[in-house]
């Protein structure tokens, strides 16, 4: 399948993040999109339909379901958490002060069902949006009658040099007792002062919370009271490290394994299987290690043999800026999608669909993708589920078993609902 020329690319993604601050509100009406347009959102499966479920958000970066037809949506630059019921925005449940330059802002949300906790990750500022930066912080809130209350600070992480590579996506762990956060190296300019051991600088400063997947209990403690890579704080909160920047993590409901998307510099965007102690390799390597002449595994930090490097399961040569990671744990959209890995992206607003093999540790890739590489985007037709959704920032399966897509579509934050036509 030929994919249309990119409307956005990763090199301008950072500047676009800051630009979506004056989006006007539009109506909440439901509309169904056809299959034939090259500009409207579309899916390749003619048995599915796309609806505009809700819209009018100012650069939304994440969403989570509180219950059936009840969604919380976060806005990057305003610091607002808005609640949607039956497709209509019913109010703002929280408004926090956030930095909004580049990739700073309100970046992550996760909802625990029992107890009803809402976790938020944001670049907090003093007194007002855009004010003095206080930190990249993970908070736990309680949802009470249309408001988020009783904030508890769980993690207080670095922000400098910034302002990019903040990551920020949150997920509730398979144990329903822990929350996972992916955070980038906070160091787009590659200031040597901030390249820590967690970025495979063996002679660098100790890990300070950047460049990895962190996990904590719902109270902010160390999971199972023991760190995977060491006992020092915050190393004891690292689940994985060596991550340059990421906009997506997600758990496979079948195995409990964590998967992650990672953004390369201008090529080699990745999909990774993130096992406990995973080392993604940055800044020694991005992409496949055997394709880097300078790569020497001895240069990788292992934290006394507790960390393990693993090559990506898939890479794109042409950057597509992968974002959200989602496993389809339902057959509502069709049995062929059940337990598949879905990945959202910035470029062309594309949703990718990857089946997994029997071990569920590798993707099923055939034809030109059998080498785990999309040498150019024209090779990805076999794994393309849909496109033209704008800048996709989140994918979620609702309690109704349908797929919800959060995106910045034509300069308007929109939630799309994808469902079976006969559903």
Summary tags:
about 425 residues, mainly beta, 29 strands, about 0% helix, 6-stranded mixed β-sheet, 1 helix, Neuraminidase, disordered N terminus
Describe the structure.
The chain is mainly beta and 423 residues long. It has one domain (10-420): TolB, C-terminal domain (Neuraminidase, 6 Propeller), CATH 2.120.10.30. The protein contains one helix and 29 strands. The chain has one helix at residues 13-19; strands at 32-33, 42-43, 48-57, 60-67, 70-75, 80-85, 88-95, 106-112, 117-125, 133-144, 147-157, 170-172, 178-183, 212-217, 238-241, 248-251, 258-262, 269-274, 278-279, 308-309, 314-316, 322-327, 341-345, 351-354, 373-374, 384-387, 391-397, 403-409, 412-420. The strands form six sheets. The chain has a six-stranded mixed β-sheet with strand order 12-13-14-15-19-20, with no helix packed on it. The chain has a five-stranded antiparallel β-sheet with strand order 1-3-29-28-27, with no helix packed on it. The chain has a five-stranded antiparallel β-sheet with strand order 2-26-24-23-22, with no helix packed on it. A hairpin with a 2-residue loop joins strand 28 (403-409) and strand 29 (412-420). 49% of the residues are buried. Mean pLDDT is 91; it is low at 1-37.
Second rung of CATH, namely the architecture: 6 Propeller
Topology as H/E string? HEEEEEEEEEEEEEEEEEEEEEEEEEEEEE
Strand content: 35-45%
Principal-axis shape equals globular
Q: From the structure provided, what is the oligomeric state, counting identical versus distinct chains?
A: single chain
What integer value in Å does the Rg equal? 20 Å
Query: Count the helices. How many?
Result: 1
Number of domains: 1
Q: Spatial order of the strands in the main sheet?
A: 12-13-14-15-19-20
């Amino acid at each position: 399948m030929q994919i249309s020329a990119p409307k956005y690319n990763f090199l301008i993604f950072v500047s676009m993040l800051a630009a979506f601050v004056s989006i006007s509100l539009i109506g909440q009406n439901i509309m169904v999109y056809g299959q034939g347009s090259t500009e409207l959102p579309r899916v390749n499966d003619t048995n599915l339909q796309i609806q505009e479920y809700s819209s009018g958000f100012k650069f939304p970066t994440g969403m989570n379901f509180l219950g059936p037809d009840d969604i919380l949506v976060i806005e990057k630059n305003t610091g607002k958490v808005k609640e949607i019921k039956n497709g209509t925005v019913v109010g703002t449940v929280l408004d926090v002060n956030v930095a909004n330059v580049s990739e700073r802002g309100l970046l992550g949300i996760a909802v625990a069902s029992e107890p009803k906790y809402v976790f938020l990750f944001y670049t907090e500022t003093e007194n007002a949006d855009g004010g003095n930066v206080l930190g990249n912080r993970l908070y736990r809130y309680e949802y009470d009658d249309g408001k988020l209350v009783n904030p508890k600070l769980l993690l207080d992480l670095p922000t400098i040099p910034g302002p990019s590579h903040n990551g920020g996506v949150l997920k509730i762990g398979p144990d329903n007792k822990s929350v996972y956060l992916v955070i980038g190296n906070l160091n787009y300019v590659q200031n040597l002062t901030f390249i820590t051991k967690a970025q495979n600088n063996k002679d660098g400063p100790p890990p300070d919370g950047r460049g990895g997947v962190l996990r904590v209990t719902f109270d902010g403690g160390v999971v199972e009271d023991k760190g995977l890579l060491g006992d020092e704080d915050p190393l004891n909160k690292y689940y994985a490290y060596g991550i340059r920047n990421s906009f997506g993590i997600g758990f496979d409901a079948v195995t409990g394994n964590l998967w992650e998307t990672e953004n390369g510099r201008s090529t080699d965007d990745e999909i990774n299987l993130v096992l406990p102690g995973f080392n993604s390799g940055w800044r020694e390597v991005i992409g496949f290690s055997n394709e880097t002449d300078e790569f020497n595994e001895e240069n990788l930090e292992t934290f006394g043999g507790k960390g393990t490097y693993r090559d990506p399961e898939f890479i794109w040569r042409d950057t597509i800026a992968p974002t959200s990671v989602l496993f389809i744990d339902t057959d509502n959209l069709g049995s062929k999608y059940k337990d598949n890995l879905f990945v959202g992206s910035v470029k062309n607003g594309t949703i990718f669909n990857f089946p997994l093999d029997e071990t569920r540790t590798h993707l099923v890739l055939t034809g030109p993708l059998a080498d785990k590489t999309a040498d150019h985007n024209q090779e990805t037709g076999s794994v393309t589920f849909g496109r033209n959704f704008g800048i996709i920032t989140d994918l979620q399966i609702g309690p109704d078993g349908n797929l919800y897509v959060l995106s910045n579509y034509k300069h308007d934050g929109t939630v799309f609902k994808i469902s079976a036509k006969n559903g």
